[in-house]
Amino acid sequence: xxxxxxxxAARRSSAASPLTTPPSDAAVPVVDASAVRxxxxxxxxxxxxxxxxxxxxxxxxxxxxxxxxxxTAYAEFTVQPEHQGAPGLAHGGILASAxxxxxxxxxxxxxxxxxxxxxxxxxxxPVPVGSVVHLTARCTGVDGRKAYIxxxxxxxxxxxxxxxxAASIFIKVPLEHFTKER
Length: 182
Ligand SMILES: CCCCCCCCCC(=O)SCCNC(=O)CCNC(=O)[C@H](O)C(C)(C)COP(=O)(O)OP(=O)(O)OC[C@H]1O[C@@H](n2cnc3c(N)ncnc32)[C@H](O)[C@@H]1OP(=O)(O)O
Fold this sequence. Notes:
Blueprint: H1 8-11, H2 33-39, H3 42-46, E1 64-69, E2 72-78, H4 92-108, E3 113-123, E4 132-143, E5 146-155, E6 162-173, H5 176-179
Bound molecules: decanoyl-CoA.
Decanoyl-CoA binds at residues 39, 42, 52, 100-101, 104-105, 108, 115-118, 144-146, 169, 171, 173.
């Protein structure tokens, strides 16, 4: 329940704008079993250099995936001093990166390879350095190569207050997207 004293963005029921709202005839997302298996050892598939989830990337977010339920993905990370923007607080771009990672994890569950096409963020509360940030994302519909995905970052526990909300479109790409010469 929202009240007039809450920030304007929090009073909206969703982070999604018209651009990130799936069309009414979008398909219901279907999770791909082989993608679920690959996610159990995603480092084997993607390597371990990811800024979002690489476990040994020194200044990375080191996001830990904690599970999924259908296309809903769960993860968490701890905000480190090197993620700071304003004194003592996480940088907004760092939080957008964390949302990109969890939204991309939900897209991964659909099978194939997806890249971020559009990412919208609502920042609802500051996130102190040292916080454990609980990330969730789910697919709200699939339209051709486009997967519409929304998510939240919460503080204080998986059911804690929302600090960041995001809505996105991920676009399905062929493997050559990652292997073609730059
Ligand atoms: C478990 C592991 C989890 C891993 C998580 C990792 C998370 C991190 C994910 C990332 O950060 S990926 C890196 C950031 N993203 C990029 O680098 C993407 C750069 N952009 C591109 O490579 C191309 O623009 C793109 C592949 C997205 C689209 O080019 P294409 O030529 O393949 O597609 P096209 O332009 O024909 O568009 C296909 C459809 O997507 C739509 N589309 C494309 N770009 C869009 C966009 N930006 N916003 C909204 N819709 C978009 C487009 O309108 C169209 O819709 P329709 O089929 O309905 O006509």
